[in-house]
């Protein structure tokens, strides 16, 4: 990873954490170069990207200031409320990049409880807010569900709503969260650098009968998206176990 990109990532994280306020200028190029052990050219390149993204503003004769941002990162609750996921779909815009009917790979087939090679709908979508892309979504649906709506409808309606239109009432989901690096195709669609860290969410959605109706692989920009989980303590279990 280029040095200027590492500096950019660290500075952006520090800004998001509130370590650099908007009332006072950020440290200058000389101070930052000494702190990071890099050249002033490297610092300048990193600051230029922060400026282009509207995170900082460079004022001649005064220094570089963090721009005040009233908006919060886009969020989705993990409290078990499926409606939260539907609401996210209604608040944002989606671009359908690709839709195909393909044989299910082993990993997807295992999660969906079907035989490897079973034909499924695979769709790739990019979700944005105010024109800024923040998530790359690859979904796998049973063939009969995937053929029940058009590509145009996928660009207008939340996918969970389209699934429920087929008679499958969405009831629950199981997911795992980790981090992954942006591949060249994902980086291009999310407007990030190749190799940049992304939040990775793998989710299987079930209907009321317990049948898996969707397998989704989501990649999210951590500067624009966050997950929130709520816990409650279960006093009936030894040690006071936390329940999500």
TrEMBL record:
Q: What keywords does the record list, in alphabetical order?
A: DNA-binding, Transcription, Transcription regulation
Q: Which residues form the HTH gntR-type domain?
A: 1-69
Q: Which domain of life is it from?
A: Bacteria
Under PROSITE patterns, the record lists: HTH_GNTR
Record carries keyword Ribonucleoprotein = no
> Which CDD domains did the record assign?
WHTH_GntR
Any one Gene Ontology molecular-function term assigned to this protein's record: DNA-binding transcription factor activity
Q: Name one Pfam family in it.
A: GntR
Q: Which GO terms describe its biological process?
A: negative regulation of DNA-templated transcription
What's the name of the protein? GntR family transcriptional regulator
Give the species this sequence originates from.
Answer: Jiella endophytica
